[in-house]
Write a structure and sequence with these properties.
single chain, alpha+beta, 4 helices, 3-stranded mixed beta sheet
């Protein structure tokens, strides 16, 4: 029994050691002007902290994202999330960036076994939301990286959100802004921001009922 336990522990340690890591970030202290800070649809920097989420993974189809971009509703976003597979652990805005609004940097890892992983060879997507969960977010940004998930033990390429290495699938690149980076190394840097889209909520059953009653009353008056 002890021998079996030791074997299982060895396999687990080997899996962790060989896990494919992804560093996902939207800023670089080396090429500061290539940073894309995330803003809400109003143009305000997305606050750092618990009311935000940043996750990486892949979508089975870009078509679902095209629908969110053209018709940004809670329904289209729910459909898009059904086609999303998350990789590793999510983080929050401000993590790894001096708790600065609009910026993030995190490393996450998971096993990508050759020939047996859905992640293998897929492009890395980054999702940013304005709530603690992706499903609960009312504003979102989705970026598709040119980088792909690599099989273990090779680390996957970094999912850097820079113009030359990524495409905004949901959201848009907006005007210039200046970032008050808390550690000082990015303070005052001017950059093109990435603006989230606001998801229009679906009408509730009660609201639809009121609309129906109002329309019925209008027809009777005619």
């Amino acid at each position: 029994m002890k021998k079996i336990s030791l074997i299982l522990c060895s396999l687990l340690l080997a899996t962790v050691a060989n896990a494919s890591n992804v560093i996902f970030t939207n800023f670089s202290t080396a090429t500061k002007s290539d940073t894309h800070a995330v803003t809400l649809s109003t143009g305000t920097l997305l606050p750092a902290g618990a009311n935000s989420i940043v996750a990486v993974g892949f979508f089975s189809s870009d078509a679902v994202l095209n629908l969110v971009q053209s018709t940004p509703t809670q329904a289209s976003w729910t459909a898009a999330l059904a086609a999303f597979t998350q990789f590793g652990t999510a983080t929050t805005v401000g993590t790894g960036a001096g708790n600065t609004a609009g910026l993030y940097k995190q490393t996450t890892g998971a096993a990508v076994v050759d020939g047996a992983s859905a992640f293998q060879g897929k492009n890395i997507y980054t999702i940013v939301g304005n709530a603690p969960t992706l499903a609960g977010s009312t504003e979102v940004l989705v970026v598709k990286s040119n980088a792909q998930f690599a099989v273990d033990p090779t680390p996957s390429a970094n999912a850097d959100f820079v113009a030359a290495a990524s495409t905004v699938m949901v959201g848009s690149l907006a005007g210039q802004t200046s970032i008050p980076y808390n550690s000082g190394t990015m303070a005052g840097v001017s950059m093109i921001t990435a603006q989230m889209v606001n998801l229009v909520p679906e009408p509730t059953a009660g609201l639809l009922g009121l609309i129906g009653l109002a329309f019925g009353g209008f027809r009777r008056r005619r």
